[in-house]
Amino acid sequence: MNNGNKDRNRHSETMIFRPGELSAQAHQKQAVLTVIRGNRADLGHNKPIGQEILVGRARECGLVLADMMVSSRHARITRQADGRYGLEDLGSTNGTRVNGQPLAGAWNLGEGDKIYLGESVLRFSMVDAMDLGYHDELSQLARVDPLTGLDTKRCFDDALAIALQHALYQRQPLSVLMMDMDGIKPINDTHGHLFGEHAIAQTGRLIARVLGEQGRACRFGGDEFTAMLPGFDKAAAVQVAEEIRRLLQEAGLEKNGIPLQPTISIGVASCPEDGDTLLALVDAADRALYRSKRAGKNRVSV
Prior knowledge:
Layout: H1 3-10, H2 24-27, E1 30-37, E2 46-48, E3 52-56, E4 63-64, E5 75-79, E6 85-89, E7 96-98, E8 101-102, E9 107-109, E10 114-117, E11 120-127, H3 129-143, H4 153-170, E12 174-182, H5 184-191, H6 193-211, E13 216-219, E14 224-230, H7 234-250, E15 254-255, E16 258-259, E17 263-271, H8 278-294, E18 300-301
Parallel strand pairs: 3-4, 17-18
Antiparallel strand pairs: 1-2, 1-11, 3-5, 5-6, 6-9, 7-8, 7-10, 10-11, 12-14, 12-17, 13-14, 15-16
C-alpha cells in the first residue's frame, strides 16, 4: 500500500539543470498522467507512462488509485510503434470515458485528453523534465512532511479512510498505531530545538524503514506519529510496533557528537476487533497509547 514511499524517494531531490545542461534532455517530452479529480489522497499525483502503464486499485498497477469506483485493473495505456499512446479498458466494472464519452475499443490519446475512471479524472499530457519536476515539487509539498519524509496528515487521513473501506469490503484486518516519542522535551531544553527536530526526523525515517511496503505513516504533531497496517491483525501489528520501539531504543541517535536517547510509546488497535469506523479505531489506539505512557513509557500497549 505504500507506493508513496517509492515516489518520495524518486523525487526527494529537486531536479537541477546547470546553464550548459539546458539541452535536448531537459526539453525532451514524455507522456504523463496527472490526477486532477478524485480522492484527495490521489490529487496532484503525476505518473510518467513509459512503454506501458496499468491504472487501477491493485498494488501491481503503475498508477494506483484510492477510488473505490475504480476496478483493480481498470485500464491500460501503451506506447505504440508510431509513438502515440493507446488507451484501452480492461473490462472494468464501471467503464472508462475519454473527454466525457464512453470508451469503445482502443483510443489514441491526445494532448490534454481527460480520462474518467470511477470518480477520478486523469489528464494525459506530454511534458518535459522541467515541467514534470515543477509539478512534482508542488505535489510533494502537499503530500510529504518535509521533516520526516512521511505522509502529511491530510494525505494519510484520506488514505486511511480508503484503506478501511477496502478492509471492510474484503473482510480483512487493518491495524492502526498511535505513537508518541518520549524524551523530546529534555532534548529541546538541554540542547535546543534543532536537536529535537533531528531526533524526530530520524525517528520518522526509522518508522518508514520498518513499515516498508507493508503500510504507511504520518507525523501529526510535533513528536507524534500514526501508522496503518492493512492486512495486519492485532498480533502482527504488535510485532511491528515492538520492532519500531526496540530499534529506536537501540539506534544510538546523536547530533554533532552529542548522544540523544529518545524512546517511543505506542498504542495498537485493529479492525474489526476494536471497531469498524475511523473514529473507533483511532480512539482505541489513542487509549492504548495512554496506557503505555501511564505504565512507564517506552512500551507497546493494546
